Amino acid sequence: MAIRNVVQVGDDILRKKCFEVTAFxxxxxLLLDDxxxxxxxxxxxxxxxxxxxxxxxxxxxxxxEGFFELVNPVIVDSKGEQRGWxxxxxxxxxxxVVTRPQTVKVEYFDRAGxxxxxxxxxxxxxxxxHELDHLDGILYIDRAERVERSD
Length: 151
Prior knowledge:
Layout: H1 26-42, E1 46-48, E2 58-63, E3 66-79, E4 82-88, E5 91-100, E6 103-109, E7 115-121, H2 122-134, H3 140-143, E8 146-149
Antiparallel strand pairs: 1-2, 2-3, 3-6, 4-5, 5-8, 6-7
């Protein structure tokens, strides 16, 4: 396990659509382990594979509800609306106000390739949406109604 460098805005990889994970193997396990170490070291709420230079549909989320690894995640339902501040490990020194669903239902695979489902509410839902956007080359600054420097 290792801490990986977090790619910063301006790098083309953050604007690319990621490929589905097809091999649930040691390489994926190592990526997920490294992403966990990295997000915890950076004290973030989540991290997507392209943020560490890997164009695969995998994210990790570290919130009050627990630590989650989502491989090939898809939002299958969303409800409500919430508006709030977001930041990003790939957009240092800024924050923005973004509107997201209040609740999302997600289907995904775990690191072993087992299909799973989860329902996320509030900040957890915000983190899920933010990280899944990364998999399609979308940054929160693209959705923000305003962006400002953070202190």
